[in-house]
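Q:
Just now I want nothing more than another pair of eyes on a protein record. Here is the record:
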Amino acid sequence: MSTRRALLLASPSLATVHRAHAQSVTIQTQAGRLRVSKWCGGLSHPWGAAFLPDGRMLVTEREGRLRLISPDGRAGPPISNLPPLEAAGQGGLLDVKLAADFASSRRIWLSTATLVAGGALTRLSSARLSADGTRLEDVTAVLDAAPAQSRGRIHYGGRIAVSPDGRHVFLTTGERNENRARAQSLSDLAGKVLRLTAEGRVPADNPFAGRAGARPEIWSYGHRNPQGIAFSPTTGSLFVAEFGPLGGDELNLIRPGLNYGWPVVSHGRNYDGTIISNRAEAPGMEPPLRAWVPAISPSGLAFGPMDGRITGWRGSAFMCCQNTPGLLRIAMQGDRPGAEERLLWNEHRVRLLVFNQEGSGHVLVDADEGMILRIEPI
């Protein structure tokens, strides 16, 4: 068998890519033949990433490192002067996104698990990347998902999205698990999608702004642990991917002021098999567009760019799955999910998919010896 034919695999092994280092494998997908190669290695639990206009990537490592990766996949030394964080449990340095005016301001957004008086919480910070890319400057805490929680170091949420017009920034927060009812409380920022202006202020048109007893930053509520958030490039709608318990992972279409039900309703059960709720739906609570039982444990959420190099992926939604590990492509019909395709399935934990300016996909593999894979057309 020729080397070329030997590399043509219906479902390639990411372990094969890991062993082959710089070599690549070819996979057959519904979008045609794609090349998967190891782009960057030597990372510990990469969690968030964003491409700079010059083609370099900012990537976070959960234990507390932020690095710049060159266009050829070489990771630079850790960037200094990060915001305070606690790397414990599921927490640490989480997501990173560029501000809409990054080209002129060099501003970025970061989310962290941070210790404050009373315990730990999810924090949104802004900072400026220095001109030489070696340190952060003007690091500012913008929003704490209060109140802090003394026990437990899980369910931080922590994913960031910037609106297509650049005017708003969104942050997801988990309900922290110890007191699940926090997700239903409008006086509490846990278990929510939060919305601020690009300047870090509360928009006057947020659904609960001016309502007594409610936090004005809230955009939607009733979420368990949303770790994926992205805007559709075709409709402009906002979507969230949400970890369920034992089963019941969700893809949600986010509308302002709506209640997404957790923990009053759920498609899943507790990890010991006991019932969380006898109801999967209830009046006044928004059902998911799709729920997965058994679980797929979705972390990042991404949409294929409309000018991307992989034409068959344009406008598709991608759920980055932890268990079963892999990448789940969902063909979208407007805001409705259609057929699914499993890619790189049952291998490593996929934390996030990001696309560079040319539209090639970059997959963050979450592991002690983590890496980033590049996916591009042949």
Observations:
- The longest helix spans residues 14-20.
- The first strand starts at residue 8 and ends at 9.
- The radius of gyration is 20 Å.
- The chain has three helices and 25 strands.
